[in-house]
Amino acid sequence: MKRMFLFILVVSSILLAACSSPAEPTTVGEGSVGQKVAVSNGSYTDVSVPELQTMLEEKDFVFVNVHIPFEGDIPDTDLFVPFDEIDANLNQLPADKDAKIVLYCRSGNMSSIAAEDLVSRGYTNIWNLAGGFNAWKAAGLPMEGSN
User: Which string of DSSP letters, residue by residue, matches the chain?
Assistant: First the structure.
C-alpha cells in the first residue's frame, strides 16, 4: 500500500512538473535576453547580471533604483524612486508606457513589487534585475555612492 502511494506521488509530481510552462525567454536584438514573469495584468522580464551588463553597453532604457533605504547605485542609474512610492512618482518615469524601464533593488524583491505595480498601470516594457545589486556585487562589479 505504501509503495503504491509513493508510486502515485512520484508519478503525479513528474506529470505536474512536465505540465508547468517554463518562463518564456525575451528576445532583444539578435539574442535572447531575460525570462518573462507573468503577473495579473501582463508581464515583466527578469534579467541576470551578465544580461544587464550587455544591455548597458547599448543602453536604451531608463534605469531605476527602487531600493529603500538608499544603499548606492549601479553605474549608469538614471533615477532613484522608492518602490513603495512609484505611484506618487510616475511623473519621473517616461510618459510613453511602452518605453523600456529597468528596475533594481538590493535583492530583487522590492523591484519585483515595483515591476508588477507598473505593469498593472499599463506599462508594457518593464525589466527587473534578478538578484538585485547583491547579485551585481557578487559578480565583482562596482556600486556608486555606497558605503
Answer: -HHHHHHHHHHHHHHHHHHSPPPPEEEETTEEEEEEEEETTEEEEEE-HHHHHHHHHT--SEEEE--SS---B-TT--EE--GGGTGGGGGGS-SSTTS-EEEE-SSSHHHHHHHHHHHHTT---EEEETTHHHHHHHTT---BS--
